[in-house]
Amino acid sequence: MAHSEVVPTMNDLATNQIPMNETTVPRSRGALAGVAAVAMSFGSSELLAAILGVPSLIQGIADRVVDAVPPSVKEFAIDVFGTNDKLALLVGISVVALGLGALLGAVSRRRDQPMVIAIIAFAIIAALATSRSAASGQLAPWLLALLALAAGVFTFRWLMKNRGPAPDGRREMLKATSATGLGLLLAGSGRLLGAATTESATGRETVALGGASTTAPALAAGTSFDVPELTPIVVPNEDFYRIDTAIAVPRVAVDTWKLSFIGMVDNPYEITFDELMNEEMVERYVTLSCVSNEVGGGLVGNARWLGVPLSALLERAQPQAGASQIVGRAVDDFTVGFPLEAAFDGREALVAVAMNGEALPIEHGFPVRLVVAGLYGYVSATKWLSEIELTTWDGFDAYWVPRGWSKEAPIKVQSRIDTPRNSFAAGSRAIAGVAWAPNRGVARVEVSVDEGAWTDAELSDPLSQDAWVQWRLEHDFAAGSHQIQVRATDADGVTQGETRVPPAPNGAEGWHTVNVQAT
Questions:
Q1: Cα 224 vs. chain centroid, distance in angstroms?
Q2: CATH class held by domain 237-391
Q3: Predicted pLDDT at 199
């Protein structure tokens, strides 16, 4: 026998005590085992997280990714994936993890150690990331990590235990594929279970809405136009845009929820949900907009909100001299910050409990959120609200400010063309859309076709100075291609500028322009 040859015994192979010939265990088998190990780690921990009602490990990692990415990456994700950006992030993390599992599995086809060490490292890092969430508690992340570690190591060792010569490749592939499928099934079951139990865990179905001391006006003739493809004057809850940093919607139980007023106040206090529901409430139409909304984008919507005026609750706390900033905190530690005067200058600023006649949808902030007219959501619209702190303007920078966004963020006057957008029959047709300037109101909307003269569009009767309006203009289109532009002017006389400005750092600007074809 040549001195370079080694004849392993089956015992040596089973215990991984000697190097293996590379042809004994193919890289493909190790890669499949690695993928299965990652799938079982994720799947088992996802299911346990749903049972416990806590954030999962993959959610904890995703939360840290969201915290760390620069604004440009956030903008790219929203541009590409829209309101599915969080789902895309979760899928991306999963794909990367499975890819790393395949790579490490291929490397570990001789010995388990590289894969086992990687799974241990993942479990520790994921537990530390998840434990930073206020909703996770202290013990749950480590229970999830222990299960993920056990499931991953057991799966990999089970699939790689037969490292002997010429194993049945088809059987081994079937075992690895089955384990991967089981892991994905567990993960999917965990997601479905978590979604199914979210509402019952919060008690949302038990909330009975009372009346308002001042109700919003009913929709009447003139407050909206009957134009096909035109956005409704009040956007249904299921169609309302959602942009936030929460990877998974927080589950907040009404029977344990409290709102604390702290900081520069003479009378710090807490209020329960039942106590808040007994406060005098008002109902208002308010249009909200995300600062990430591009010109002509859909990250804006108008709804009918029910809530307690923020000013009334702040007056009870007795703000101290020198307090100039309201900091809103969510249960997931997201923060906003806006001037104290915004609660007292006459605009609508509500601690809201209902949206369009029903308790807040969970994804829109149940049980309680802030709604502040005229300010972009990233500085005002705290969902899942848990705390309001008064401080100085320089005393605190909210979540997005250190990430490059402006500290002051009034919503800019904007308008959008909803229809037409593509091709249509030549002849008379309505050009229509929406325009908004919350806390000022829209005074005028003008339309230009093929760079012609600006023509005033008809405006719907405003629901309030904080709500958007619809606009329309009949135009006779000749056959051929056409360019349509729109611009709005607010009640202060400020007209949209033509120059395109990106959303960062304080909101997009420019005329919405569409190219269409009349046939």
A1: 30
A2: alpha beta
A3: 66
